[in-house]
From TrEMBL:
Protein name from the UniProt record: Circularly permuted type 2 ATP-grasp protein
Domain Circularly permuted ATP-grasp type: 61-438
InterPro entries the UniProt entry points to: ATP-dep_Glu-Cys_Ligase-2 (IPR051680), CP_ATPgrasp_2 (IPR025841), UCP005522 (IPR016450)
Gene3D superfamilies named among the record's database cross-references: 3.30.1490.270, 3.40.50.11290
Coiled coil (UniProt feature): none
Originating species: Sphingomonas horti
Amino acid sequence: MGTEPRHAYAALGAWLAETPEAYLQTRRAQAELFFRRIGITFAVYGDAQADERLIPFDIIPRILSADEWAGLERGLVQRVTALNAFLNDIYGPREIIRAGIVPEELVLRNPQFCLPAIGRAPPHGIYTHIAGIDIVRTGPDNFHVLEDNVRTPSGVSYMLENREVMLRLLPELTDRHRIAPVETYPELLLSTLQSVAPPRCRGEPTVALLTPGFHNSAYYEHSFLADKMGIELVEGTDLLVQGDVLYMRTTEGPQRIDVLYRRVDDAYLDPLVFRPESTLGVPALMSAFATGNLTIANAVGTGIADDKAVYSYMPDIVRFYSGEDAILQNVQTWRCREPEALAYVLDHLDELVVKQVDGSGGYGMLVGPHATRTQIDDYAARIRAQPDGFIAQPTLALSTCPTLVDQGIAPRHVDLRPFVLTGAHGVRIVPGGLTRVALKQGSLVVNSSQGGGTKDTWVLDG
């Protein structure tokens, strides 16, 4: 951070200057108590010390000006539109492969390429109805996309609850700003899902949210969103397919479901098509979809667009489908599947961030500058054994935001995940998103599973 805050932070800077640190720490403790009372927790898989944790919340907001957000919004609409075009294409005519833009083997041999989705376009041709695009800032006017999350993106409940906490605990600060609202998100999400109901649907579509159950790390969010939208939260055992139609079991008999907002991965959705041992999904679910009686959101097969090797082609993908250069550029990426890139990465592991192409949540990463020699050597062996499974990126000089830590206010690295909704009526985005913050000094890893926290994100309204 510079010596002078950006203009958008002027009012916040003045408020912090006049506010005692003891007051800030009291509000910080009250925010933690609020989150604990309402039960916002997440599970850390493989952690024997704690099954459920709170994601730390920082009471100092991240602020974007209206102009900054306008540029981000244009880039997000362009990118998600291109992602949907790409998914329609690879499960259909595959023009981008024939044009030599994206390698055929990267698509057809990808573990996330879904054979049952070939030739079965979802209603309205929309694959990713809900996308979470991770963005990092590397300079005053430089935003880059770090990765795309278009399968089952999570975190929107924290965006909404973070705003509520700020309005409750710090009204004297929020009153100093004209903040664009985010609380319309559940309404926009429901209208988006209803808009993509199958053409055969008559009357108001019935929407349900499919969760793997309360053991899932994002179960709070599933329950939260279902409640806010006024729809049923269901598990696989609550559903059945009869006559290629999906029904929900109720005390009054089966009720037809037109749109299923699924928070279950493809592999577990239908034991007759995917993993036969799965108890999380519904037998014959894909038959209901294939016959045009059901919309699944996000559509089956979207996971390939989460692949980090596919991500590396996104500037070309955007140009191919839109005829325009990408407004939001990628972070420079080396594909270890290519011999020259592999050689470079292996020679510079101590300088790079290396990720598994199918990884998520910050797991399995190597942050070269913070790794030991042994860790680097072990990771190099993994890359040599399976180069197709890794990409590498430079260690970015991520922007920082003022953050309240035990020692006071200090700069910490942040990213931003806006949530992009695509329905029959177009693309809509609530202004803001989930800001994740690396609470450890010097850390670049913001994921909650790796010790990161969250902030409220303010987009100034004018």
